[in-house]
Amino acid sequence: MAFHEERFPTDLSFGAVGGPERRTEIVTLANGFEERNTPWAHSRRRYDAGFGLRSLEDVELLVAFFEARRGQLHGFRWKDWADFSSAPGGAVPDFDDQRIGTGDGTTRAFGLRKTYGVGESAYARPISKPVAGSVRVGVDGVEVSAFEVDHSTGEIVLDAAPANGVVVTAGFLFDVPVRFDADRIDVSLATFNAGQVPDVPVVELRV
Questions:
Q1: Number of domains present in the structure of the chain
Q2: Whole-angstrom Cα distance, residue 145 to residue 140?
Q3: Which residue from 21, 160, 175, 194 puts its CA 20 to 30 A from 202's CA?
Q4: Can you state the percent helix, strand and coil of the chain, rounding each to 5?
Q5: Quick one: DSSP state of residue 105?
Q6: Which of residues 113 and 192 earns the better pLDDT score?
Q7: 1 and 35 inside one domain
Q8: CB 172 within 8 A of CB 127
Q9: Do 74 and 97 sit in the same domain of this protein?
Q10: What CA–CA distance (Å, rounded) separates 66 from 86?
């Protein structure tokens, strides 16, 4: 199994449906109260790429991409048009969009992440597939350029370790690592022309 650092055609993902999924285990006690827990620290996203198909050319493009990935075998990048930027509303990223770490005088490597919500209930989502050329970094409120980005893992490595207590921030565009969630695509030209879309499930990968 491998991951192909290639993005699913954005014209097709634009019309897809999907979003984050959580797994919650609920036990109803004898007194009627509930106990709720989750085995997942992070959400997992699912999409249906079939809704993005609008023409026979789109179907051909999908099939070619599917074959190149060998079905479920290889992962790939996916642009989630509802959530692809560190900035609110999909705006252009700024260097202070997201807090990604605090200096200790030694550490130079920091992982990208996007935080949803505020306070104790906030959720920090790891970002492993930043878009090349989009990452901006700030140290102590000042944008810096002395850093390297691993676009396959989302790790930022600064040339110099920030001092103890100094806040490190970042702004970026990002993709979701996914794979097809089926080893077959069923398309009938007759039903497609009649408005019926094929089922093309895509699921997020843990990388």
A1: 2
A2: 13
A3: 194
A4: 15, 35, 50
A5: S
A6: 113
A7: yes
A8: yes
A9: no
A10: 29
DSSP 8-class letter at 122: -
Query: Is residue 1 pLDDT above 70, yes or no?
Result: no
Query: Which range (25-29, 105-109, 156-160, 197-201) has the least confidence?
Result: 197-201
Instruction: Inform me whether the pLDDT recorded for 77 exceeds 80.
Output: yes
Domain identity same for 67 and 94: no
**Average pLDDT of 77-106?**
96
Helix (H) or strand (E) holding 167: strand 167-171
- Percent of the chain's residues with pLDDT above 70: 97
Nearest-angstrom CA–CA distance, 45 and 125: 12
Domain around 141? 86-174
Query: What SS3 string covers 168-193?
Result: EEEECEECEEEEECCCCCCCCHHHHH
